[in-house]
Design goal:
The protein is of the alpha/beta class. The chain contains 11 helices and 13 strands. Helix content is 32%, strand content 23%. A hairpin with a 3-residue loop joins strand 12 and strand 13. Helix 3 crosses helix 4. The radius of gyration is 19 Å and the shape is globular. Bound molecules: oxa(dethia)-CoA.
Length: 335
């Protein structure tokens, strides 16, 4: 029986820092509101002409993860790429990363699970390794939000929250059953699909239809979020996903060495921290510096935490996420 463990991590964020004060220059918002409600101080947004895109950032993060794994690109068997903001409507970003990294004709799969994207992607990769089909898989989360946000006051409840960036891990086969991914837990509840959504362009809201309507109030091509509704569900579902993993592995919350929650809102992470009676050393947050980077957020935080020596050999690391779909889940890892 094979197990899968992380052998390399990396992340990349665009250089361009956008502070809350910067945002207040082009929309009616302010640093106090953003920090008080979300904890965010600044985020990175791709600068036009920089050459960065969802796939390019994903490839940059993947290069670092690959280098740290000590593996050659020829040893990677498969790519799983999570994003809600692919460079193109189709094909997805996985194939672009395969090309950018100059990899052989290995398979590349895109995961469309928004903020839970990286958790879902890890679960998919874990199954491929556990069945023995693949040995080394690149798992990437990357988002270019800034290219598609409503940066006027109309869109402020969404646009101040989201940032750009990418993270990646190499997941590799191990025969040590005490190390690596212990379990993954995935859930969805499609009845709330429209509470956090970008409706068009899509086959249901095609571009010509949006243009023909010429309706200035039609903003279906910008993300919509019912913030308080999403918040309430997030705190419940985050908790459930963590409890499910603890029960499955006969563990207590106090056994968690590091919880890496999806960086949706610092208030959500703090609520979870209090609920499970975790101290500050047991939770990693970086939303202050990067905002919410959706499918990239958990892996950027994981990679950054590892880089700051917040994770030791043998630690119990828990990844948990909730987002659009609704989708949510967790990954339990013995490091
Ligand atoms: O990552 C996927 C999962 N996402 C989440 O989990 C996000 C969950 N939701 C949230 O984090 C919060 O609901 C938000 C941070 C999005 C919003 O915070 P809130 O406390 O729920 O605020 P609200 O939407 O109820 O808005 C309160 C007020 C409104 O004004 P009035 O109607 O009270 O006069 C908004 O118009 O704040 C106003 N507002 C803003 N003011 C300044 C909304 N956005 C802004 C803004 N700057 N950016």
């Amino acid at each position: 029986m094979y197990n899968s463990k992380i052998t390399g991590l990396g992340f990349y964020v665009p250089e361009n820092v956008v502070t809350n004060h910067d945002l207040s220059k082009f929309m009616d918002t302010n640093d106090e509101w953003i920090q008080e409600r979300t904890g965010i101080k600044e985020r990175r947004w791709i600068k036009e002409g920089s050459g960065d895109s969802t796939s390019v950032m994903g490839a940059k993060a993947a290069r670092t993860a690959l280098e740290r794994s000590g593996l050659k690109k020829e040893e990677i068997d498969f790519i799983v790429f999570a994003t809600l903001s692919p460079d193109m409507y189709f094909p997805g970003g996985g194939v672009e990363v395969q090309e950018l990294l100059g990899m052989d004709t290995i398979g590349a799969l895109d995961v469309r699970n928004q903020c839970s994207g990286f958790v879902y992607a890890m679960s998919v990769a874990d199954q491929f390794i556990k069945t023995g089909m693949y040995k080394n898989i690149l798992v990437i989360g990357s988002e270019n939000h800034s290219g598609g946000l409503d940066k006027t006051t109309r869109g402020r409840n969404v646009s101040v929250i989201f940032g750009d960036g990418a993270g990646a891990v190499v997941l590799s086969r191990t025969e040590d059953s005490n190390k690596g991914i212990l379990s993954t837990h995935l859930h969805s509840e499609g009845k709330h699909a429209k509470e956090l959504v970008l409706e068009g362009p899509s086959t249901a809201r095609w571009v010509p239809e949006i243009l023909a309507n010429n309706d200035p109030n039609d903003v279906s091509y910008y993300p919509y979020m019912n913030g308080q509704f999403v918040f309430k569900h997030a705190v419940t579902r985050f908790s459930e996903a963590i409890i499910e993993g603890l029960e499955k592995n006969n563990l207590e919350a106090s056994d968690i060495d590091l919880l890496v929650p999806h960086q949706a809102n610092l208030r959500i992470a703090q609520f979870i921290q209090r609920k499970f009676k975790l101290n500050d050393d047991q939770v990693y947050n970086n939303i202050m510096n990067y905002g919410n980077t959706t499918a990239a957020s958990v892996v950027i935080a994981l990679s950054e935490a590892w880089g700051k020596d917040r994770i030791k050999d043998g630690d119990l690391v828990v990844l948990a996420a909730f987002g659009s779909g609704f989708t949510w889940g967790s990954v339990f890892i013995r490091w």
